[in-house]
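Thanks for the sequence, V.! I ran ABC-2 type transport system ATP-binding protein right away. Repeating your input here for the record:
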Amino acid sequence: MRPVRGPVRPRPRPGARATPAASLLLLVLVLTGLLPPAPAAAAGDVTTEDARVPVGEGDGAAELDTTLYLPASGAPAPAVVLAHGFGGSKQSVASDARDLAGRGYVVLTYSARGFGDSTGQIGLNDPRSEVADLSALLDRLAARDDVRLDADGDPRVGVAGASYGGALSLLAAGYDDRVDAIAPQITWHSLTAALFPSQVGEPAADTVAATPQAEDGGVYKRLWSGLFFGVGSAPSGGLLGALGGGGGGAPAAADLPAALGSVDPATVDPQAVEQLLTCGRFTPEVCAAYQSAASTGTLTPEVAAVLDRSSPSTVLDRIDAPTLLVQGTQDSLFGLGQADANARGIAADGTPVKVVWYAGGHDAQASEGTTADLRDQVAGWFDWHLRSADDPARGPDPGTGFSFPAPTGVTASVGTVQGGSRTVTTAAYPGLVGTEAAQRSPVPVDGPLQPVVTPAGGTPAAITVVPGLGSLASALTGTAFEIPGQFAAFESEPLGEAVEVVGASTIDLAVASPGGSATLFAKLYDVAPDGTTTLPAGLVAPLALSGLSADPTAPSTVSVTLPGIVHRFEAGHTLRVVVSSTDQAFALPAEAGVYSVALAAGGNAAALAVPTVDGRSESTGGTSRWLVLLGVLVALGLLGWLAAVLWGRRRRARVSRVEPDGEDVPLRFTGVTKAYKDGFVAVRDLSFEVRRGQVLGLLGPNGAGKTTSLRMLMGLIRPTDGRITVFGHEVHAGAPVLSRLGSFVEGTGLQPHLSGRDNLRLYWAATGRPAADAHMEEAIAVAGLGAALDRPVRRYSQGMRQRVAIAQAMLGLPDLLVLDEPTNGLDPPQIHAMREVLRSYAATGRTVIVSSHLLSEIEQTCSHVVVMAKGQKIAQGTVEEIVGTGGSVLVGLADDADTDRAVAVLEGLPGVAVERTDEGLVADLDGTSRARALQALVAADVSVEAFTPRRRLEDAFLALVGEEA
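Predicted structure:
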């Protein structure tokens, strides 16, 4: 259950300036009404308060990390509690909180126990812990003067959240009647049914996505459960440090207390330590349930007790808070059937329920437009149900209808979606109390009885669902992942007209198994006329079957509910029902077997019952609207022409601006910053210059911004701010001055089927420059591959590929050579040779830039160094300046008889102190240069065999960036 982030408004690129064209475009959009209204309060008007809140008692005590977002008005206002997804924290919902506070709500966010900076153990929304924690937070809201109250101790409050937070909002409404409205998103009804599904039997209701669930459990959802437990088990904070911080291996449980450092080993319970190592942040009860399920793949009463306790299904009849249920159509963790069951349970007692399906879920992130719309719907739900009738911000009644993304099909080109982004709405969710039953249309399918083999251990297995990635099969060709012999298929005739499936289809099968039981997986494929197959949303229906007939001639009839989907099967397409014996996302039987699968109706034909929903498509329509849009398009065309003119002028001005010292300064960074849309700043205000003839080493730990800087230098990406010049000309994509630059950054890029020589020739031919200018023989000499140069690159070792790539960068003998980690894969003699090549190359008046993690190589190869950390330059200078002119040196003498004289010479220099060691003399120069000390020894005819700095570049580097980095 991954954290589901709320919609994040795009941040302006730092340093970006509005052009006249952009300003005019903004004016056009505002005047035509195509921009949404501004929020009630600017983000800057919202203030925050952080607090640590103690909750629980005894062994169940914890401390929650909370943030309260306060609107600008200061008057008593309704409150909203935002709960985060599993693995997230209060930061996961910060943008949603600020948006709601801007609309006038007091918004409380917090990290649930066991997550973020909160303490305590994860109980899976246990009513005794996580739900009780929320009630304690409502007590705090009720004590505030700026929160509107319904009664003493009863705040006017709504609760919203996604996934883990969505289940918490449902449970909170069931256990605490002070909750006035809820908006749970992509969450579960029964955690037991979600993790042990079996879609066998007649649906429980006439709703569009009603999904049956066997009482004794189903097929264990192995991959999702493992991902879920892995997120919660990962150690954090002091425990992570005690375990080595992810490197070097973890100590044994008995040694952990000592590894914690500040903890007295005598006060640590070894069993508690073992619990931390085994279960991370989970409670022992939850940990034991997972270990049981993971090892056996079966649902035991003990496991069911843990999962049922955390399931909203146990409290739906108590919920009287108006509920907005939001569920995703691309969700293999919590499918549409989970929201369907929640809607039925809450509406059964007359509580208002609105159901919204959207294109997204745990397997696919929603689009920015969809995310913004969902945010507005949640806010609108709270506006109506939390604000007073006389509040001008209350807004319209959102009703209790049903909306879903308009069904779209897939064309013969895999992955090409037809149609636009539309939403269909109806007055009510079909099949709830007081509404009409869902419509179902029969689609005949046929096919013979077919044997289905299950392999021993379930391997190899079909691949359909990849947790968090949705349908891998739909992204490629669906049939490629069904294993021959492991499935049965039943097909319809090509459709005479399109069929829009909204919900879960049903079909009756006839199944026989020699052992009386079977684990199967049912799927509904869309087959195009050219044979292209698509598995909508990558969803499958697990079937845990027992009590089956062993006689294929008298099989057992099984009613199957297929996955809930929203999909349009186009005219000419075929519906294919596939029943397979394996799926890599689920636990599978260890024993091999052969089942027989057929259609249950007489003969080879049966009817697939597909749900359909008639509704109103919400889209921009109307003649006047289209005229406005046409006008906007014309305006955009004019704006585009104006922008092109302005950009051309700017570019010409930029190209004509050449720095006068450009030939002496081959490279100059001036205030360069690179920031991304998500706010991450890879490089910040970087300034340095490289002179002709220098070999510059670019140093820094991983993530320092080195490669990003090199990519900007080559024109591959644009800086957000600042200026990069090569030989006085500003760099941009396609800049002519880049022809004077040779580079090797981020991979060799060699064609494996060609020889090394042909790769070099092909690369140079692509430049369009004369072959005579390539200096091919000089570059080949650098590669030093001999006869191997004419063998295919796919036979090369990593070091051989590296040498060819460096030779490629040197083609044409560029004036500026840029190399990223050039010695990777080279052996010591090759590294030594590379060092000599680079130094001699710079000695010709050219310039070399080397980015490397091998600090000793930088020290021996480079004349100058720029040290970076966290995107910023922290030091620049010659290697001598970075290492330091003073420090200590180790003096080795060829003749021990010279020892006393050497000591006297050195101690005669200003500030020098000498110590005799087994290695030799260690002289602390204290400001005297090493060159002067060595000259004094040579002048005194002392036989110096070694004169080695005791402080290396590595020492200086660690001192600058910090050993931890």
